[in-house]
Amino acid sequence: MNFCSECGDKVSLKIPEGDTHLRHVCDGCETIHYVNPKIITGSLPISGDRVLLCKRAIEPRYGLWTLPAGFMENEETVAEGAARETQEEAHAEVSDLQLYTVTSVPSVSQVHVFMKGDLVDDSYSAGEESLEVELFTEDEIPWDDIAFSAVKSTLKHYFEDRKTGVFPVHTTDIRHR
Ligand SMILES: [Zn+2]
Question: Which residue ranges does the record assign to the Nudix hydrolase domain (predicted)?
C-alpha cells in the first residue's frame, strides 16, 4: 500500500502506539490501515469412495490438481463460499457440508478452511478456472501433482479417517511450503 484509501495522502509503515505490529499509517489523516489474513474456503466433495478434484486452468499452480476452493467473499458464510466455489470450478453441487480441516499457512497469511460434503449427483464439468474435473479413489489421486499443501493434507486426513468412519475436525499448521 502506498496511498491512503481515505484521503489519498502517502502512508508510512510504523508501529502505532499501543500496537505490536507494523501497520500502514496515513501521514495525513493518521488512519491505520490494518491488513489481516485471507480466508480460503473450499469443499471436499465425496461420491462413494471417490473425491472430486479440479485441474487448475489458472496460475498459480496451473495444471495441478486441487479441491474446489477460493477466497471467501464478503457477506457470505464459509459453507456458502465452499458451495459457490464448487459450483464455479466444477459445476457441481455438494450437500451436508461439515467443517473438516482448518489449515493455517502463516508464511502467506492465509487460512484454508475445507468442508466435507456429499456430491449431490455425478453431474460435474470444468468451470472457467478448471481444465478438467474428475473423481478419484485414493489409489488414483495424483499425489505428486496436488497444487497446495492444505489440499494434500486434507486429502490425506480424509483417506485416513475413512478407515474408522470418524471424521473429526483437523487443525493443521503449515510452516513451510
Ligand atoms: Zn489518509
Answer: 22-158
